[in-house]
Design a protein that fits this description.
Layout lengths: L2 H11 L7 E2 H7 L6 H11 L10 E2 L13 H10 L12 H4 L5
Parallel strand pairs: 1-2
Length: 102
């Protein structure tokens, strides 16, 4: 694992239960202001092996990034189990549940 990937993993793990963070905010926390795509890659490739709370990372606008039928329902269920309100459209109130720099 590269140093930048390690920092991303640490930033993802730092998101507390009941909170969400945007890809950009995770990248900023990892010291990579232009690293949102690397955050997405890290989530895609390491979530399972590193036991990452992948469900807590969403779009900065408060929408779940995963499409319907391809993980969105699971992500919403995991967030709801932590007390995060997720609308039927897959939206989260970032002012209430956001964690990070936005």
């Amino acid at each position: 694992m590269t140093e930048s990937t390690r920092r991303i993993v640490e930033a993802i793990r730092a998101i507390p239960k009941g909170k969400v963070s945007g890809y950009r905010d995770v990248a900023l926390a990892a010291g990579m202001p232009c690293g949102a795509r690397q955050v997405a890659w890290t989530l895609h490739s390491l979530s399972e092996s590193q036991n990452l709370p992948w469900h807590r990372v969403i779009k900065a606008c408060g929408r779940l990034a995963l499409p319907e039928g391809n993980g969105r329902e699971l992500q919403a269920a995991l967030l709801r189990a932590e007390g995060v309100e997720v609308s039927e459209a897959g939206e989260v109130d970032m002012a209430r549940y956001g964690f990070g720099n936005s």
